[in-house]
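Most newcomers find our protein records easier to grasp once they have seen one. A learned vocabulary of local backbone shapes supplies the integers on the structure line. Here is such a record, shown just as it appears in the course material:
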Amino acid sequence: MNFGTTEIILIVAVLFLLFGASRLPQLAKSLGQSRKAFREGMREAEEEERAEQQKIAGTEAPRISQMSDEALTEEMRRRAEAK
């Protein structure tokens, strides 16, 4: 979605009319803080999900290239049973 110069000027003018020049910095600051909090929450959720997946899998998942065929088959069975 590309905004041209005219659209940006129109949006800024509407914001000045709605909130006034003195409240715009406060509005921008609170918007930035909300965005930062949202990103931090998403990062924490991803970390928790990763930790849970590692907990379910036991420890760090073994590398496929280092496993024998029998060990690979056993690991596939174990993961299928865990689901």
User: Anything to note?
Assistant: Residues 24-57 form the longest helix (34 residues).
